[in-house]
Design goal:
Elements (H helix, E strand, L loop, with lengths): L1 H26 L7 E4 L2 E5 L1 H13 L1 H34 L24 H24 L5 E9 L2 E8 L1 H5 L3 H29 L7 E6 L4 H5 L6 E5 L2 E2 L3 H8 L7 E6 L4 E5 L1 E3 L2 E6 L2 E5 L9 H25 L7 H12 L6 H26 L7
Antiparallel strand pairs: 1-2, 2-3, 3-4, 5-6, 5-12, 6-7, 6-8, 8-9, 10-11
């Protein structure tokens, strides 16, 4: 009952705030300010974004042309990498390789598909993904004078993002080179963003963990009773160094329930913890902590702040690259489908309908089979890290 309330209470508060904002917006007639309010989304639609993208594209036109030309050329590689990754992952799942990882959907429904703890990181990562993605499409369009019909930002209950609506009829008349730039712009920008985020994260945090961070304590568990503080870092257990969660798991596999273990923390404190049985496996001893690998930072950050910053970077790195690759699959309605059609036109294929259908069927088949096998082997198709 408590776990259900832990999910429903935050959800109710969030939806209550959403409803209050909606009602206030209706009362003050927010549409006067270009804000479109619906029960399921809020949208700010303004020509100011159009002008901003046009000015940005004009100011550094040569640099943008080079940038998006590189993206257009890399589009083939991104599409090939997407197909290769799905085929390789599907084979690993089919043969049940130890290296197999699940294909998971990222659907930001806190308490249902993801936990409330990771919800803020997911929202931040999605915003960093979608807004630059759409802006890139807009700038790539104005470089060759393809009009932007509308643009803005939105929040669809749990999903933030931006949108750029370009004149598709005008784009259809442009050279193939322009089309390739526009269609590959979003994913290429996401890949560049992923690389920049990775560089920033690497400059802040050391590449290997040096302890286990106690992110929370099990109520009534041995660690809580022994006075192990939340957000402390475990470095030694029974005289054995602990550099990662796997190290801790290996040590605990040799401990029996009821046995005491000596836990040393990074601040030099020692705590004698009496282990208890895991509710899922009575023969397995646990100390009653929820953990994560602790990556020390090169700048002064407390363990809790470091964990939050590291988690934000980690989710951005994960989502930016993977979504960028998936978006370049030759699958309708992804950008990869229109990129594939343009390549076919450049190769002299006049009727692209059937090749596009075939590519979409193959891509969708790979995606669905990966999800089915992931569910059968791992019990879920949602990313719950």
């Amino acid at each position: 009952m408590a776990s259900i309330l832990d999910t429903l209470i935050p959800l109710g508060i969030y939806l209550g705030i959403w409803a209050a904002i909606f009602l206030i917006g209706m009362l003050i007639k927010a549409d006067r300010f270009g804000v479109i309010l619906k029960p399921y989304y809020f949208m700010l639609k303004t020509a100011a974004f159009n002008s901003w993208m046009e000015r940005l594209g004009t100011k550094w036109r040569r640099a943008w042309l080079v940038f998006f030309d590189v993206g257009a050329a890399m589009g083939i590689g991104l599409s090939g990498l997407a197909l290769y990754a799905f085929v390789r992952g599907l084979i690993a799942l089919f043969v049940r390789s130890p290296q197999a990882t699940p294909t998971a959907l990222i659907i930001p429904l806190p308490g249902l598909t993801i936990s409330w703890e990771i919800f803020p990181y997911i929202i931040l990562a999605i915003a960093v993904l979608l807004i630059p993605h759409e802006v890139a499409h807009g700038i790539a369009s104005v470089l060759d004078r393809v009009p932007i019909k509308s643009s803005g930002v939105f929040l669809a209950i749990f999903l933030p993002g931006g949108f750029v609506e370009i004149d598709e009829e005008d784009l259809a008349k442009k050279p193939n080179r322009t089309k390739l730039r526009v269609f590959a712009a979003g994913s290429f920008t996401n890949v560049v963003s992923w690389f920049l985020v990775f560089l920033i994260a690497s400059s802040i945090f050391l590449p290997t963990p040096s302890g286990v961070l106690v992110t929370s304590l099990v109520d009534g568990g041995g660690a809580q009773q022994a006075g192990v503080p939340q957000w402390s870092v475990i470095t030694v257990v029974n005289g054995n160094p602990v550099n990662s969660v796997s190290d801790l798991s290996g040590i605990m596999s040799r401990i029996t329930p009821g046995q005491s273990v000596d836990v040393r923390l990074s601040n030099g404190l020692d705590r004698m913890v009496v282990t208890k049985s895991d509710t899922q496996n009575q023969s397995r001893a646990i100390i009653g902590v929820i953990t994560a690998n602790y990556f020390p930072s090169r700048i002064p950050l407390s363990p809790i702040t470091g964990f939050q910053v590291f988690s934000a970077f980690n989710w951005m790195i994960l989502i930016l690259f993977n979504v960028a690759i998936v978006n370049m699959l030759p699958l309708f309605p992804f950008d990869g489908d229109r990129y594939f059609a343009t390549i076919l036109n450049m190769l002299g294929v006049k009727n692209t309908k059937w090749p596009r259908i075939a590519a979409s069927v193959i891509s969708l088949g790979l995606l669905l089979m990966s999800l089915v096998l992931s569910f059968l082997l791992f019990g879920t198709i949602f990313l719950r890290r």
